[in-house]
Design goal:
The structure is a single chain. The relative contact order is 0.10. α3 links the parallel β1 and β2. The chain has 241 residues and is of the alpha/beta class. It is elongated, with a radius of gyration of 22 Å. It has 9 helices and 7 strands; from the N terminus they run ααβαβαβαβαβαββαα. α1 runs antiparallel to α2 and α3 packs across α4. The chain folds into 2 domains: 174 residues, 3-Layer(aba) Sandwich (Rossmann fold); 37 residues.
Length: 241
């Protein structure tokens, strides 16, 4: 057996996904991070399932898993048994995360791993569903953060005073810390989220006109000018109303 559980899984990965002959999931560095960070007294949740579920089980934390594939539960529990790890502290919730998460009991969470569906808007929906449950000071791991549907969430949280993008694990996983319980800002402040501004949904001259106008007025300076003009217009309307 290797010096850590992560080493053991890396040297002899169990078949968990596909037809039981595939193994994929977190970067090994991120898996090792979870093994070092999670403690028995924690309450944790994972969207997606795999080797990380085995590591959560070994930690002794009270752990919940959301996966659409019931066969993954069978394979993960079998892998835990072969490794001499109890999975009694792990509860599986079978179904798509956007359906399962709103139905779960709203108990506080210390750490959440978001690594489920990566198509838009599922990473955002997953975060939105679990964010109120995360304790202040708690952690959310956003895996595959380079993918645009995840990256837009990372960018948004980097500009939200209730969250802090604390670090990156390897090249794929962002570690986000919760600082407060407030809602995200209702207005866009002009910051880049998920990539460059684009008007490719418009046609012809509309695309060029929209791009020029928005690039001019959605800089931070431009937004301040727009806000000043709006306030003056409101004041003028009140005086004449």
């Amino acid at each position: 057996m290797g010096s850590t559980l992560t080493d053991t899984l890396r040297h002899n990965p169990p078949g968990i996904h596909g037809d039981g002959d595939e193994f994929w999931g977190l970067d090994w560095g991120a898996l090792g991070w979870i093994e070092r960070a999670v403690r028995a007294e924690m309450s944790t949740l994972e969207i997606g399932a795999g080797a990380s579920t085995i590591v959560f089980a070994a930690s002794g934390a009270t752990h919940s898993v959301v996966t659409p594939d019931p066969r993954e539960e069978e394979r993960i529990r079998a892998a835990c048994e072969r490794l001499g790890i109890s999975s009694a502290n792990v509860t599986f919730h079978i179904g798509p995360s956007h359906e399962v998460l709103p139905r779960l009991e709203q108990t506080p969470l210390d750490l959440v791993l978001v690594d489920g569906a990566h198509g838009f808007p599922y990473p955002i929906l997953d975060w939105w569903a679990v964010a109120p449950r995360v304790r202040i000071g708690g952690t959310v791991l956003l895996d595959d953060a380079y993918m645009p549907p995840v990256l837009v969430l990372v960018d948004a949280l980097a500009h939200d005073t209730n969250w802090q993008v604390a670090e990156a694990i390897g090249f794929r996983t962002a570690v986000v810390t919760k600082l407060g319980d407030g809602l995200p800002p209702f207005d866009w402040d002009g910051s880049r989220m998920g990539g460059r501004m684009s008007f490719r949904y418009l046609h012809g001259s509309q695309r060029a006109t929209g791009a020029v106008r928005q690039r001019l007025f959605n800089t931070r300076a431009g937004l301040r000018i727009v806000g000043l003009v709006r306030r003056r217009s409101e004041l003028r309307w009140r005086k004449t109303g």
